[in-house]
Design the sequence.
């Protein structure tokens, strides 16, 4: 949690969270340092985990000028009106309960800082790069590598992949892909 404070003080406004669930606490979102190798989906580099809500509550409190939480001295960030960009990276597909719990944590932390409803569920994701930055000031932009279709989290995601094709493949997934499929799938993967 301290690292979020340090990064904000250094001027960082974009955060990538590897969100996963523990086998011992199914359905609840946690963060830890996760091995990005797609062949090791269940392994983590660190056994230290924290509930997803803790760093995002810290992020909200300090990024938008509310000051530090806890026993630390209150520190005001100079760029408190700049937007916050959060990228939620899910290592695998989860059950709806898990995505709904992620959405609940985001709602509790950022209900006053969400983009308006026209950005919900990725409706305007194609407008993102042509939209004036002023529209995002004082707001949180949520990006994800999954759409989380049919869950409460879907409504929170402003930018998601255009297709459901995974960006990472294991060796067994690509053994029987034809040349025609490669030319079709490669541009989609690159845009992710």
Sequence:
């Amino acid at each position: 949690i301290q690292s979020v404070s340090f990064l904000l003080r250094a001027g960082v406004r974009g955060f990538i969270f590897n969100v996963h669930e523990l086998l011992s606490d199914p359905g609840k979102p946690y963060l830890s340092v996760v091995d990005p190798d797609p062949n090791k989906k269940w392994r983590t580099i660190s056994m230290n985990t924290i509930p997803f809500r803790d760093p995002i509550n810290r992020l909200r409190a300090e990024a938008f000028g509310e000051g530090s939480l806890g026993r630390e001295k209150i520190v005001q960030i100079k760029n408190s009106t700049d937007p916050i960009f959060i990228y939620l990276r899910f290592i695998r597909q989860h059950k709806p309960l898990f995505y709904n719990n992620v959405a609940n944590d985001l709602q509790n932390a950022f209900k006053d800082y969400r983009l308006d409803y026209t950005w919900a569920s990725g409706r305007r994701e194609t407008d993102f790069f042509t939209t004036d930055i002023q529209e995002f000031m004082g707001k949180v932009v949520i990006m994800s590598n999954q759409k989380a279709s049919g869950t409460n989290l879907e409504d929170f995601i402003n930018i998601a992949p255009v297709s459901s094709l995974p960006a990472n493949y294991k060796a067994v997934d690509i053994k029987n892909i034809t040349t025609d499929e490669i030319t079709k799938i490669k541009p989609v993967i690159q845009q992710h």
